[in-house]
Write a structure and sequence with these properties.
Elements: H1 22-34, H2 49-171, H3 178-284, H4 295-330
Length: 331
């Protein structure tokens, strides 16, 4: 089938002298040589070992070029990341310093605030104390005012008695001043009081003697009744004590028998402890330097031996578990 000429590109015919078109001719030749020549599908190179090796070498060169580019890029990225890390470290240090300064500032502010609160509390307490003291003084002043008014009232009320005493002094020459009248009155009142007290004391003595006699009579009666009761109680206690004595004698006999049994058992235990101590010392090649009667030290040695055996048993049990675990893992 013939190709249509309409599908082909128009041929550009140069105009002018051929010498002038030489440059364009060589330029077109160079472009033609640089153009990729497309071969038909049936004209593909066969996969021979040389071709495959050349393809592998070409892929290797491309991979080396890409690896070199990636390494250069990695170096650049590493430099950039190191700069960023250094910047972050510096910022971290600045942040730490800022945090320490801020923490110190907060602590100082808190201390200042605590001092201010304590001072405010002290000032409030002092103010309350001063207020209480002022209120107490005011109350004291008010009480003194009341006492003053009461004393002034009493002075006015006692003025009548002062006038009476002055009239007595004027009418009776034996009194030279009102104080003598008062002294005479106090002496007479004291004598009357003394006589009344003496009479009252005598009456009290008589009444006390009568009461003592009655109390003594009643006490003797009660004493006799108490003695009778005591005698009956002593008889009852005697019978009770005798029964208890019999009971405790029987208990003592049983206690002696039990003590004898316990002594025999104790002797057996002591003998067993001594034999066990001697056996442990012989097995451990220790010197028997404890006395046969020092059971406390013997028990100490036995307890140490038991603790060592317990520790050895735990170690053996742990090693057995470890071996079982290793055998399980190995299987």
């Amino acid at each position: 089938m013939k190709k249509s000429l309409k599908d082909l590109a128009p041929i550009a015919i140069p105009h002018g002298a051929p010498v002038e078109s030489t440059a364009e001719y060589f330029k077109s030749l160079m472009e033609t040589s640089r153009m990729v020549k497309k071969y038909p599908v049936w004209d593909v190179a066969r996969p021979t070992p040389q071709v495959l090796m050349e393809q592998a070498r070409r892929d290797l060169m491309e991979a080396d070029e890409k690896l070199a580019l990636k390494r250069d890029e990695e170096q650049e990225n590493r430099i950039a990341m190191d700069v960023k890390w250094q910047d972050l470290r510096e910022k971290e240090m600045l942040l730490k310093d800022s945090f320490i300064s801020f923490n110190k500032f907060i602590r100082e502010n808190q201390e200042k605030r605590d001092r201010a609160e304590r001072k405010m509390a002290d000032d409030n307490e002092a103010l309350e104390r001063k207020t209480r003291e002022t209120e107490a003084i005011r109350q004291r002043v008010a009480e003194m005012e009341e006492v003053k008014q009461l004393m002034e009232k009493q002075v006015k009320d006692y003025t009548i008695y002062e006038d009476y005493l002055m009239s007595v002094v004027h009418n009776y020459p034996e009194f030279k001043q009102p104080l003598d009248v008062l002294n005479r009155y106090e002496a007479l009142a004291a004598a009357k009081s003394t006589l009344a007290e003496r009479q009252e004391r005598d009456l009290e003595m008589l009444e006390s003697a009568r009461q003592e006699i009655a109390a003594l009579t009643e006490e003797k009666k009660l004493s006799i009744m108490g003695l009778n009761n005591t005698l009956a109680d002593l008889r009852w206690r005697y019978d009770k004590v005798r029964n208890r004595v019999i009971k405790w004698e029987l208990a003592l006999n049983r206690l002696k028998e039990t003590a004898a049994k316990r002594h025999v058992e104790l002797c057996h235990v002591q003998s067993a402890i001594w034999s066990l101590y001697v056996k442990i010392c012989k097995q451990k090649a220790l010197a028997i330097d404890v006395k046969s009667g020092d059971f406390e030290q013997q028990l100490v040695v036995i307890m140490r031996a038991l603790l060592e055996l317990k520790r050895i048993y735990k170690i053996a049990q742990r090693r057995s578990k470890e071996k079982d675990a290793e055998s399980t893992q190995t299987s």
